[in-house]
Amino acid sequence: xxxxxxxxxxIARFDVETDxxxxxxxxxxxxxxxxxxxxxxxxxxxxxxxGGGGTSALSGGVLYLGGGTSLQTACGFEDTPDAMYRYLMAxxxxxxxxxxxxxxxxxxxxxxxxxxxxxxxxxxxxxxxxSGEPPTDDGLVYSGAEQTHPFCDLAAPAPRGHVAAKTxxxxxxxxxxxxxxxxxxxxxxxxxHCVTDLVLDDDGAVVGVVAENFGExxxxxxxxxxxxxxxxxxxxxxxxxxxxxxxxxxQLRVAGDGDDGSGIRLGVAAGAATLxxxxxxxxxxxxxxxxxxxxxxxxxRGQRFINEDTYYGRLGERALFHExxxxxxxxxxxxxxxxxxxxxxxxxxxTLAELETELQLPPGSLDATLSVYNRxxxxxxxxVFGKRREYLQxxxxxxxxxxxxxxxxxxxxxxxxxxLVTDAEARVLGPSGDVIPGLYGAGRxxxxxxxxxxxxxxxxxxxxxxxxxxxxxAAGGGS
Length: 479
Ligand SMILES: Cc1cc2nc3c(=O)[nH]c(=O)nc-3n(C[C@H](O)[C@H](O)[C@H](O)COP(=O)(O)OP(=O)(O)OC[C@H]3O[C@@H](n4cnc5c(N)ncnc54)[C@H](O)[C@@H]3O)c2cc1C
Known about the structure:
It is a single chain. The protein contains 12 helices and 22 strands. The two termini are 33 Å apart. The strands form 5 sheets. Strands 1, 2, 3, 8, 9, 10, 11, 21 and 22 form a 9-stranded mixed beta sheet that branches. A 4-stranded mixed beta sheet has the order 4-7-6-5. By secondary structure, the chain is an alpha/beta fold. Helix 1 packs parallel to helix 6, helix 1 packs parallel to helix 12 and helix 3 crosses helix 4. The chain binds flavin-adenine dinucleotide (FAD). The site of flavin-adenine dinucleotide has 42 residues, from helix 1, strand 9, helix 8 and helix 12.
C-alpha cells in the first residue's frame, strides 16, 4: 500500500474540511476522536475497513491501569501511581520513555473513569491466581510479572489488568462502546477510506490527507492536525523481515487486517523518526495450565534462562529473541499436565540422559541444570532465577518429558511495539527531536509506553490514553 506525501499545492480543492483528521478507528483512534470532539473540534475519522474496530476489536480487551483505580479499590487492593511507575520503569524494556510512563501512571486513575464513562461495563470482582485474561467476567486480574522476580522486590505488586464484564475476550465489547461513543460524540466516521498520503504545506506542516475510497481519490483538509492511529506492522512481511526477522517465525501474528505499518510509513514520509522497531510482544503460553510453571525451561544448551513462573510474554520474548526460539520445558511425571496450547512433546525418557540425547543437548548439560535446580527446589529456593516457592518442586519422578517450545512446534504469538517517535504530548517527532507540526500519533503506530518487554493490557492502555492526549492537542486544547 502506498504511503507517501503530497504538497498542498497539488490539491485545488479539498473534498472534506475538518479541524482534526483521525486516521484509523481502533482503540487509539476512537479515544482521539472522542476527546478531540470534547475539546470542541470538528472531527473526521478515516478508516480503511468498512467500520471501526481494528485489532482492538479482536483483542482480549485487557487495559493495564493502576495507581488506585476505583476497580482496584473496590476489589480491596491498594496501589499508587509510584508503585505502578516503578514496575513499568523496571519492566517495559531497557530504555523506557520516562515522561510517557510518568504521565501514564499519574493519569491512570482518571483514565479508567473515562473508559467507564464511554459505557464500558466492569464487574467489581477480582480473578485470582492468573497472569492474563480471566476465563470469567471478573473485572480485575494480574496481567504482568508484578508478583515475580525481580519485580516483586522493586515495586509493591498490584493487579492492574482491567477487563470489561464479559466472559473471555472482551475486545469486541470494549470497541463496541468506544465506536458508539465516537459516533455519539459527533465525529464523522468515513469507512472504506484508506489513507495513502499526508498533505504538507510549504513549511512541512501536515495539513491534511489523501485517501482512496472505492478507487476514488478523496482529500481531507485538517486545520488542527492529523492523528495517526493505524496500528502496528506485524502483517507487513517486508517491514517485519527488516526490523524483527525472528517474528516471521512466530505461528501467530496477532492483528487485524490493517496492521501493515501504513501509518508508520506515512509518518516517516513526512519526516518522522521511528523507535524500538525491533521490539515485539511475544506470547509463549507454554505454562498453561499454571501448574506447568513447576517445569524447568532450558535452551538449546540445556541451560535455564528465566524464572518459569513469570508472565508468558516474558517467556516468549526471552525464548525468541535471546534463545533464537529454541527452548524446551522439562517436566517429570509428578507435575505433568496436558498443556492448553503447546501440545507437542519433543522427547520422553526414563532418565534425564535419555531426554538429553533425544533433544540433542550437550552431554551432561541437562543433568547439571536439573541437579542444581533440584538441590535448591527441595528447600523451596531458586538462587539462580528467583522462582517463587509455590512453583518449586524437584523434578525427580520418571518418566521425564520435554514440551517443545521451538518456534516450529509451539505457539508464539507476536505483535510489534515499535513505531513513530512521539513525545508525552503525542506529537510526532523528527530525528532531531523536532516536532512535526500538525502530526500526532498514538497506539501501535507509535513507540509507546512499552519499549520492549510487555505486560498484557499495556497496548490498549497506552493506545487509549495517548489517543486522548493526541486528540485533545490536535483540537488545540492542549492536554
Ligand atoms: C487476540 C488478541 C488479543 C489481544 N489482547 C490484548 C489485550 O488484552 N490487551 C492489550 O492491551 N492488547 C491486546 N492485544 C493487542 C492490541 O489489540 C493491539 O495492539 C491494539 O488493539 C492496537 O490498537 P491501535 O488502536 O493502535 O490499532 P488498531 O486497533 O489495529 O486500529 C488501527 C485501525 O487503523 C486502520 N488503518 C490502518 N491503516 C490505515 C490507513 N492507511 N487508512 C485508514 N485506516 C487505517 C485499521 O484498519 C484499524 O481499524 C491483543 C491482540 C490480539 C489480536
